[in-house]
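ok new one. same drill as before - structure tokens go in, u give me an amino acid for every spot. 416 of them this time. try not to just spam alanines like last time pls lmao
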């Protein structure tokens, strides 16, 4: 069974950011023009003069994978009994090694074709709005686009490697239009008015005090904090629509008209404060602070606290390192959160003992982690890599815990 993936994002605990690498005439989404096999399977249908091509922009949903909306291309020709939606945001979970490929950023997405009634049914059930941008195209341009999409949807052409910000359902539409209408299409944007990073753009769709926001901020690397050109914003369907509306074809607006196919007001369900990450991070930090104070007051060390805290941080650090070095996800590269959620914490949490050798290496590891944490804090302050402010209590308490352990090492002789 194939699920319609209302891109851009599927599960951002592991942040579905997939690299794209497709051959073909249409850059990532195209086909080899010289591939006779594709043409042998392609039976051209001539569109009538009454045919119409449009871009469908779909509103956000409640689930994380649908928070950013969706986009697709519709071709309708009542005279030929054609009403098809070409959707670059689908995948097949029955493919071999699905979950492994999913985690490593190697999962294939595909261009699927369905009728408009089926496409809209999902959004009707989820109460998500759908707007149609009807394009101002001549007959030859309509036919060219239709032929391209039909051939691109053939089994040997429809698969591509998905990338969250570079090659998804929304960027595919811009690429197809620019490739197939390259001789006539124009777009001029004032880049001075746009100075956002990919992370800033993602934040526009997520509440500050939400698990989605804190999870995304933790997993995304510093590559997502660079200021991007306006054309790069098209990975989000809302900006895809905005850019298409600014395009011109033959000195006329590309969008001929606009209409609502489904109307719903998006109302995000509010999360009770006691279930928000801000509350739980603050509570967790407060508990550690109290235990830290007790240790300081009594000149002792709570080994269970360190085992639990440092093991969790170390395990998360290994996960972030895996997302950086072990996957093809472009958006999780150069993630300097590994400086404060560090795999070295595992040494402090799992390697226990009071002999001088362990004592010596523990304090070396403590200094190394402190230096790395300070480096991360500097990067955060200067804006090199952003992080949710909700993490501040946790970071402060980790600093205090490390300083306390160094204090014990030098002044209390805890290990003796």
């Amino acid at each position: 069974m194939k699920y319609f993936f209302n891109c851009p994002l599927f599960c951002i605990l592991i942040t579905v950011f997939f690299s794209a690498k497709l051959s073909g005439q249409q850059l990532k989404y195209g086909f080899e023009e010289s591939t006779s096999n594709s043409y042998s399977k392609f039976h051209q249908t001539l569109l009538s003069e009454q045919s119409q091509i449009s871009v469908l922009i779909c509103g956000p949903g409640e689930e994380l994978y649908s928070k950013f909306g969706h986009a697709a291309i519709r071709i309708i020709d009542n005279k030929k009994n054609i009403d098809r939606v070409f959707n670059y945001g689908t995948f097949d979970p029955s493919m071999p090694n699905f979950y492994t490929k999913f985690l490593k950023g190697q999962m294939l997405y595909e261009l699927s074709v369905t009728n408009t009634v089926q496409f809209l049914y999902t959004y009707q059930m989820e109460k998500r709005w759908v707007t149609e941008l009807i394009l101002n195209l001549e007959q030859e341009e309509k036919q060219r686009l239709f032929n391209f999409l039909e051939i691109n949807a053939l089994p040997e052409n429809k698969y591509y490697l998905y990338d969250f910000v570079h090659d998804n359902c929304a960027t595919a539409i811009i690429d197809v239009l620019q490739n197939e209408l390259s001789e006539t299409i124009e777009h001029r944007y004032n880049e001075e008015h746009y100075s956002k990073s990919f992370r800033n753009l993602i934040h526009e769709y997520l509440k500050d005090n939400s698990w989605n926001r804190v999870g995304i901020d933790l997993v995304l690397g510093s590559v997502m904090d660079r200021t991007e050109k306006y054309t790069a914003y098209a990975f989000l369907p809302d900006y895809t629509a905005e850019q298409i509306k600014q395009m011109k074809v033959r000195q006329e607006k590309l969008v001929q008209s606009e209409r609502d196919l489904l109307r719903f007001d998006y109302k995000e369900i509010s999360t009770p404060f006691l279930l928000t990450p801000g509350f739980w991070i603050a509570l967790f930090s407060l508990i550690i602070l109290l235990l830290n104070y007790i240790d300081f007051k009594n000149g002792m060390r709570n080994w269970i606290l360190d085992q639990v805290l440092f093991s969790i941080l170390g395990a998360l650090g290994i996960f972030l390192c895996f997302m950086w070095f072990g996957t093809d996800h472009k958006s999780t590269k150069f993630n300097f959160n590994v400086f404060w959620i560090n795999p070295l914490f595992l040494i402090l949490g799992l390697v226990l003992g009071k002999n001088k050798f362990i004592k010596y290496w523990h304090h070396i590891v403590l200094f190394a982690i402190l230096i790395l944490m300070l480096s991360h804090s500097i990067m955060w302050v200067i804006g090199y890599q952003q992080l949710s402010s909700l993490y501040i209590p946790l970071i402060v308490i980790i600093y205090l815990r490390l300083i306390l352990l160094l204090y014990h090492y030098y002044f209390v002789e805890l290990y003796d």
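The CA atoms of residues 184 and 262 lie 31 Å apart. and btw The first strand starts at residue 3 and ends at 4.
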